[in-house]
């Protein structure tokens, strides 16, 4: 595949002040969120919800791309416009989630490994023809007693590298997503240690697989204390620890890091990203932006509630969160924007 095309796509994905909307929830995840709000869990409701998101006026100012799920990339607006075409026409790159979920790691039931490599080459070809120009694969790393094991980290890093190689061969820019979960009572310092080890192993595997680093995007988690840890790091402490970890492990040739929110509260995820871009303004070799799912969508979903009458208000909620995170990607966010 044309390396120049992949480079151009990667650069477009981290365009200044823009981020990536993660709208790649699986059936079970989407239905679970709908159930919590009393929204019917049907394919049509999922389609209508996604149409509400993708047709929100003005979001192309803030989103460079949208990650889709297999169901979503095959869906269309009520008027019959395929979602990939709708996004492309708006100047937003369509992407596709390629992994098939994290499953228990053999011989280590408390750890996970992501599956989905079987048949991946053919799926990439199909999705490219459907309009996808980038992809995502998520690895899940849990911090706990005597975990993560080196075996778990290496298995996930190897899968990420194989996925990334197939993507670049097939014309898709790979988003490499090694997520270290917030679940647990670990300290900020322990989170830093695990993030550092994970990222070092991931880039070692990417190097061995021959990945062109200027044709990929990293989607890391932030270095955060476990949710059950009695001592939580400040916004500034999280920002400094996260960037230090990235500087130690991420080569300068990677165009950008688009963070996942990982269960953070909406405004907290925005504040962390903003602090990184303010504190380290002009000092970093790669762009730092967002690729949030729930932290962008939750307010819109709660406003929409499955009702056509609420579409405009829900789209305003999405626009607001996108605008705040766009400002954070520039280091220009202020909590006063939330009012």
UniProtKB/TrEMBL annotation:
Keywords: Glycolysis, Lyase. Pfam families: Glycolytic. It comes from the Bacteria. GO terms for biological process: glycolytic process. Pathway: Carbohydrate degradation; glycolysis; D-glyceraldehyde 3-phosphate and glycerone phosphate from D-glucose: step 4/4. Transmembrane segments: none annotated. GO terms for molecular function: fructose-bisphosphate aldolase activity. Its EC number is 4.1.2.13. Gene3D superfamilies: Aldolase class I. It catalyses: beta-D-fructose 1,6-bisphosphate = D-glyceraldehyde 3-phosphate + dihydroxyacetone phosphate. Belongs to the class I fructose-bisphosphate aldolase family. NCBIfam families: FrucBisAld_I. This is Probable fructose-bisphosphate aldolase class 1.
